[in-house]
Amino acid sequence: MGPDCYCDEVIPGKIEVEVLAQTENTLAFRPPLPGFGTDHVIVIPTRHVSSLLDLDDDLALELLATVKTVAAQAVDQHGGCQVLTTLGSEQHNRHLHWHVAVGGESPVS
Ligand SMILES: [Zn+2]
């Protein structure tokens, strides 16, 4: 499932990120190297959770509220965005993370 730069670097503050929103147990930030679309925000729980499938209900609500906060900012500023999380073989970092991305490649829908 790949590395965990969130527990290793972001949460302990070893790399500097632009924080957009924060709650007791969640963090939303712009990654230092944007990789997805023209504006890319990552939302994570600040304690280790492997994926959406391991997320407990209380933290799910708190995390989704933070996703909603940054998604609303993206819609206000850019008119729209994608919100997604990856699982299994498509998850390249073994810490649950949500992407809120503007202008990224759209999935077939
Ligand atoms: Zn982790």
TrEMBL record:
GO terms for molecular function: catalytic activity. It comes from Lentzea waywayandensis. This is Histidine triad (HIT) family protein. A motif (Histidine triad motif) lies at residues 95-99. Residues 6-109 form the HIT domain. SUPFAM superfamilies: HIT-like. InterPro entries: HIT-like (IPR011146), HIT-like_sf (IPR036265).
